Amino acid sequence: xxxxxxxxxxxxxxFMEAYALSAQIGRRLQAGDLEFSWVDRLVxxxxxxxxxxxxxECHALFRLDDEQSDEVRAEExxxxxxxxxxxxxxxxxxxxxxxxxxxPKLERMMREGGDAGPLAKxxxxxLEAGRQRMIESEAEAAELFDETRDQLLVxxxxxxxxxxxxxxxxxxxxxxxxxxxxxxxxxxESIYGxxxxxxxxxxxxxxxxxxxxxxxxxxxxxxxxxxxxxxxDLSRRFARGVESFYAGNLGDAVDFLADxxxxxxxxxxxxxxxxxxALVAIETDVGEVDDALARRAHELSAALSGV
Length: 307
Hints:
By secondary structure, the chain is an all-alpha fold.
């Protein structure tokens, strides 16, 4: 996986986090129980803010040098939209802070008979303008988030099929469905041609990155049936087998890999090399203490070479 692919997958994750946070903030604002800590998580001037991270990541990945083509790319439009989201979010943050911090103090002063002269009246107008700006910014941000999401899909579909992107979309299916307003299966189909191809890309990416347990867990989800029962089960057994090997559970590793080989050793081409190296290591490591296990590993290694 190259760095561009990895960074873009992170951008997708951070966008979905920011989108979900914005929706929660909108609901809490309407309910009257919004706390500033929620706003701070969405937008601010530090890495703790989802929109700040997203803005910085997009600028780093998508911005072109002046010497490059004048053609406007889909990524650049997305980058500009994210920048606009950040600035709209900051307007909301400032309006919310002004309204919730100073308005109660002024109202208390007025109730207690404080100075109600021209300055207090002017301050009241400022606070009311801030409250109105806050409401308008929240509505603008919600609309802009939807438009930016649509542009993100344009970018995703314009790029080569990526396992890292599939992983980011499958990491939290419920959140993905909420953000894209589409079940994960049809979403993957619109990007990869079929939901099965999306799941397969994600599994292969996880295994290539050494995340064997996560790959198995993904295959064990109910919705992963789209992969096809045979390939799904064999891929899961392969992932569990290599996971068991690295965890030191050599007997389990041999059992899982035996099932995978018996089923035809289906999967990415690199999987055979991973399995072969695991079986050779098992044979070498247990040769003097567990002759039966060593012999079985040797036989499986030979069988694998003929598949």
